[in-house]
Amino acid sequence: MEWREVVEHSSLKDLPFKIETNEWGKIMMTPASCAHGMYQARINEWFHRQGEWGRVSVQCPIRTSKGTRVADVAWASAAFHRKHGVRKVELPESPEIVIEIESPSNCAAELEEKRLLYFEKGAREFWLCDDNGNLRFFNPQRQLERSELFGEFPGHIDIDASVSDQ
What we know:
29% strand; 8 strands; alpha+beta
């Protein structure tokens, strides 16, 4: 199944979980949780406060060599958006930063595969948020102490804190 067919299929709209496709076009589903959505929201809020030199996308579909993977959060520069636009069904390349938030249904091998697929499609950084809000940052070569693109991004996200405390 092509990604456009998944997006436009009437019975698949408004499902309460994330859909991706594998390399054979088969649909894979991941259940969502409130905490998962809160981590996405906190990350989005942080980027929004940084200004307009880039944009954040939540649930960002990226065409990879193994099907369409949907990043929990992605940040792309203005140059990326000029090149690709913002109304794509799926992106042919990865935005500069791709962020995955672990959920109970994820296994380490799945997240590692996503990391490699996003780098293969041009990501400059991959961030991984665990289920306690701790972040790990990677570039294509290694794990980083902090993000090279946003060094001031916190290493921990507290979904129980008020927005002004972040």
